[in-house]
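Newbie here. two chains, one complex. Structure please?
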Amino acid sequence: MHPPRFTAESSSHGIVERDFTVDGIPGVLWSPAAGADRAPLVLMGHGGGTHKKAPAMTGRAQRLVTGCGCHVAVIDAPGHGDRPRTAHDEREIAALYRARAAGEPEGPIVVRYNAHLADIAVPEWRTTLDALQELPEIGADGPVGYFGINMGTAIGVPLVAVEPRITAAVFGQHWPDALAETARRITVPIEFDLQWDDEHIPREAGLALFDAFASREKSLHANAGKHKELPRFEADSAVRFFARHFDRMTTSRA
Amino acid sequence: MHPPRFTAESSSHGIVERDFTVDGIPGVLWSPAAGADRAPLVLMGHGGGTHKKAPAMTGRAQRLVTGCGCHVAVIDAPGHGDRPRTAHDEREIAALYRARAAGEPEGPIVVRYNAHLADIAVPEWRTTLDALQELPEIGADGPVGYFGINMGTAIGVPLVAVEPRITAAVFGQHWPDALAETARRITVPIEFDLQWDDEHIPREAGLALFDAFASREKSLHANAGKHKELPRFEADSAVRFFARHFDRMTTSRA
């Protein structure tokens, strides 16, 4: 396996941002500017309809790099960002917009479309992780986390279930329909975000997905508010979650 | 109103510990050793069967004083710590032990006994707060929080519902039966801890109490584990919760 091919590099406020591709998949890697020592890696999955450098991604990456000293990688999901849409993508997106305009539930369409994207994205993520671990500043032995809400959870749950290198994950805000069975195979520590007044995901559905994880250590953070009102402080909480678990892993191996 | 009567003082690791009484109620006040400036106050309610200096109280107080720069006060609940037990206390405690030994549900006894204790404790807390606010290092204008789990929630919910000086609260791990109606009158920001596998408080009961709060800002932290396995990191989370809200209040008044 080769390391990622870097296509652009910039830096500001102590963070280096490098665009890369792995097997044609476009991604971005944020890293601490100071120190070439090995540091943990967090893979982040973006939400549906957005992309690898959407504000939620850059904001969370900044917190993780500065608060945790981690590397953070995001790749564009299939049909998102710099990647082409297929005819299937176009049909599903049109179906979603029709449902939204008609005031019909979005859940059934999001669930089936995201499951389709996850089938494609999971092997892409594994190949990307192979490549990132070829970098000397990451390496093959360091802790790896995964952080993805909404579509990031639809892709992340099947990824974490099959990828033993990922040892801690933050998920949230998805329906259990296509994910609960897979979540039952996940035993690594997780933090799970849920909006108590989500107008798309019924409360019982969100709680059922949290309940499905087999992890001995799992924390539900449910906040008052609608689907898009996930509080900013949950990103800080995710940083602390990873710092706690990476630290523990580092200590236990020392 | 007079300030509390201090009966003992010691200090270690940058924290001053002062025993006090207010109207004969014994309490303890922990304060930052450095700086005589006014600082926020957190009132903490201890759990059933314990007392004002139980390890959970001293541990949380240490985190709050050092992490948040707050003053922290705890008083012994009626029938607890240095306070005498009445015949009613003895009967309820005996009933609780009988239920426990017989493997019967503890909930009905805890709910009714804690409600009785709250009737006594709420006015005691308000008088104690009056006295503490007479101290120059606390004052009458500063932010006041409340932090109490288990019996600390049974007493804290009716206290916060009637006490407008308390502007942020951390609760958790109690049944909704005697508290949900009162919780519906609480609108200040809250954080609420619940154990996902609590063997005493059914999951639906815990969620119903969280749901009852009218607060626009409320966060549920539900962790895998049994009743007594509330993770230590939730105490750190409570410190950050108070720091966030105290800071906001200070800023908004500046």
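Moderator note: The CA atoms of residues 32 and 69 of chain A lie 6 Å apart. The first strand of chain A starts at residue 5 and ends at 12. Thread marked as resolved.
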